[in-house]
Amino acid sequence: MSKLISLTGNDAAAHALRQSRPDVAAAYPITPQTELMHKFAEFVANGQVDTDMILVESEHSAMSAAIGSSAAGARTFTATSANGMALMWEMLYIAASSRLPIVMPEVNRALSGPINIHCDHSDTMGARDAGWIQLFCENSQEAYDTTIQAFRIAEHPDVLLPVMICYDGFIISHTNEPVAMLDDAVVAKFVGEYTPARKLLDVDNPYTFGPLDLPEWYFEHKRQQIEAMRKAPAIIEAVGKEFGALSGRTYEFMEGYRMEDAEVVLVALGSTCGTAREAVDVVRESGIKAGLLKLRAFRPFPIARVRSALSKARVVGVFDRSVSFGIEGGPLYHEVRSSLYGGTTPVLPFVYGLGGRDIRVEQIAQAYRTLDEAAKRGVKERDVEFIGLRDA
Amino acid sequence: MAINLKKLSAKQDLLAGGHAACAGCTGPTVIRQALLAAETPVVCGCATGCMEVTTTLYPFTSWRTPFIHSAFENSAATMSGVETAFRALRRKGRVPDREIGFIAFGGDGGTYDIGLQSLSGMLERGHKMLYICYDNEAYMNTGIQRSSATPKGAETTTAQAGSVKAGKDQNRKDLTAIVIAHNPAYVAQAVPSLPNDFMTKVQEALKADGPSFINVLAPCHRGWRCKPDTGIEIAQLAVETCFWPLFKWERPGRLTITYKPKEKRPVAEWIKLQGRFKHLEEPRNRHIIDELQAEVDRKWNELLAMEAATQAAQSKAG
């Protein structure tokens, strides 16, 4: 059944894409996404996947071509990072509002400027309102598993929304880890065929895609997008469960670590969750009832589930790997705080790891101690705490 | 292959009436002629602009062909995705095994300016599709702003004629030459006033083995400040003055001028019919007419030389 092999996050995602048998891929290079497309191009060159690649001249055209291809009726993916996605910005919204199930690994990288090629989440956080489902991964295995599930979620008739698979640049994309792969036939059966109800290539039943939508109808169409996003959580959960039955790795909307009796809880995304688990173990030895809540989906954001998962916490810290200028705390902080609105649990913001700055177990352990102290002192609110930042 | 207008007139118009284009707009004429000429089913796309907003007012559509609009600068990229999907799905037996033509439309703003990169990418990659630019020489949909296709001296809302300025300062970009530099399968210029010429070119372009491009001068009476019923006449005069020469260029490099005016009329005659050039009549601006004429002559002579050279080279090779 499952074969355990050593793969980088990019190679793992490339294998998942190969096994999902896309018809068309649009590709444009940007670090650290590049090696995903190198690997996929290798599969294409060797006949291991029957996919037509459109090697475009920009990310804007990558998403535009993906929109054309998906509307034509082809299973379509592209991949990008940071500035590449920023150049797609306009088309991200159009892909989502056109209800096209495009799948896109988005290898998280700091958005310029200053230019930086290393990991943070500023790229995908900026696109949170574009209408894409955003799923974060902790490691190569999750990048592999999530990419396979992404097609099922995106193409589900109740959803029909594009899906972004977010994994940390270099930390996941370029790090070899053991990955359990499924057999090609198993994945092919799980993902199934893409059979859209409406497609451009149905010349006998012509459809118009992307019409002008004036005040009479625009609002209703946005409402349909909102409803699709509301239906997405149930599909994300169902697909995660079905994938679990297949692979032994069930995916839920979020994942807790030592949360049963946790009073001091950190909420985080991505690869940092692996480091945070170690920190939980460290501070538990000194008597702090620490716990970790790892979120998998940032959009749709699971407000009720987060509220319920944090109901027993005495204090909550939120780890953001991006900032929102002009307000304390990053995007994740604000969503978690909204989720707990009406309660009395203090929610305190941390910002770490911008531009790829490393985050270590001891730093997260210290954050737990800080939270524990703050709870004891009755701190309800404070400015953001930056982790690992020079004083200058 | 000759176009039989009588036969074509019996075909269903693939762009339905009832669209919201201005009375006298030549844009829909360009689209209708192109679609009538197509000999296979076609899938169309269009950049944001007049022809997109006036034909797809939700919940209505004028398009009796499959149609996609996604944004302004990417008609070529979007349609390259559609064309690639067709090749992939046809090979896999997931769409019927028959020929389909692909036509991307765009105005001059969406083609010469903001969509130039997307067009260049499509040409370079070699997608088998036709791009038709309906060139009305300014951003008409947003209110007649200057584009790189606006001729020198023409007044627009962003390059105005006033006490110290005389409309656009620069000559227009020769996009057709830029397209030819990509060595695509087929390139042409056309006008809606000579439908046989244009529709023959559409048929040749759709049959060409690779990317093709037709640049169609499409007068806009709102922007050109002329009477709504003069669009076709002004398009024809653009040809008679050699402001807009009609030619085709076929890979690997044969240029044929498809219409040579019996008598090359002065560009001033063309200008005279358009209010956007009215300020050129003032003595202090007269020199601009001479400069425009010089530019028209330069391009026309260049074209004649290129025709002679490429035809000679072809007959030598052939």
Description:
- The complex is a heterodimer of chains A (about 400) and B (about 325).
- Chain A is about 40% helix and about 20% strand.
- With about 400 residues, chain A is α/β, with parallel strands linked by helices.
- Chain A folds into two domains: about 5-195 and about 210-245, 3-Layer(aba) Sandwich (Rossmann fold), CATH 3.40.50; about 255-385, Rossmann fold, CATH 3.40.50.920.
- In chain A, the strands form four sheets. A six-stranded mixed sheet of chain A has the order 10-12-11-14-15-16, with helices on both faces. Chain A has a four-stranded mixed sheet with strand order 5-7-6-13.
- In chain A, helix 9 (about 270-285) links the parallel strand 11 (about 265-270) and strand 12.
- The longest helix of chain A has 30 residues, at about 220-245.
- Chain A is globular.
- Chain A starts with a strand and ends in a 6-residue tail after the last strand.
- The mean pLDDT of chain A is about 95.
- By secondary structure, chain B is an alpha/beta fold.
- Chain B has a single domain, classed as Rossmann fold, CATH 3.40.50.970.
- Chain B contains twelve helices and eight strands.
- Chain B has helices spanning about 5-10, 25-35, 50-55, 75-90, 110-115, 115-125, 175-180, 195-205, 220-225, 230-240, 265-270, 285-315, and strands at about 40-45, 65-70, 100-105, 130-135, 185-190, 210-215, 245-250, 255-260.
- In chain B, strands 2-1-3-4-6-5-7-8 form an eight-stranded mixed sheet, with helices on both faces.
- In chain B, helix 8 (about 195-205) links the parallel strand 5 (about 185-190) and strand 6 (about 210-215).
- In chain B, helix 2 packs across helix 8 (about 195-205) and helix 4 (about 75-90) runs parallel beside helix 6.
- The model of chain B has no long low-confidence stretch (mean pLDDT about 95).
- At the A-B interface, strand 3, helix 3, helix 4 and strand 9 of A face strand 1, strand 2, helix 4 and helix 6 of B.
